[in-house]
Description:
Elements: E1 3-9, H1 15-25, E2 46-52, E3 57-63, E4 67-69, H2 80-100, E5 106-108, E6 128-137, E7 140-149
Parallel strand pairs: 4-5
Antiparallel strand pairs: 1-2, 2-3, 6-7
Amino acid sequence: MTMQSRMFRFHDLSWEARTLIKKWMATPRVMRDGFSAKSFDNPNLRVIQVNNSIGQTVAFGAVETAFMLSAYLLNPEATDQEYHFGGQEVDCEIAKWARMDGVRKMLYATPLSHYSHQPDEKLIRIVEREFPQNLVMRGAEQSASVAVVS
């Protein structure tokens, strides 16, 4: 089966695609899996549109930019209290940069034993896929490692 996908900024989607999204959102039996009207509040939203071999749209996916703290290193001589306050400072700094970049979410990869303290926190399963990617920037080819969080 042949499929074709393209990613667009939401404002670059065709009128036909926008109409289809609105129609599907109003259909009760459509699987939304997190896709809601709130998805469109993000000014940085990108949408993936998947079409089959005859050009019929099969799926849409909302793609948001997210900051993810992937690793940290702790001073072995620091106290538990310093770890706690240091973690809060990391949160504040990431949040500051996220707001400046128009990012709405932070993802934390924590041990399974981590207890969620905030009422607005939601536990999710993260699948990480790493793959090498060659990036072409201004004619010069550079190699980069990219982590995809879905």
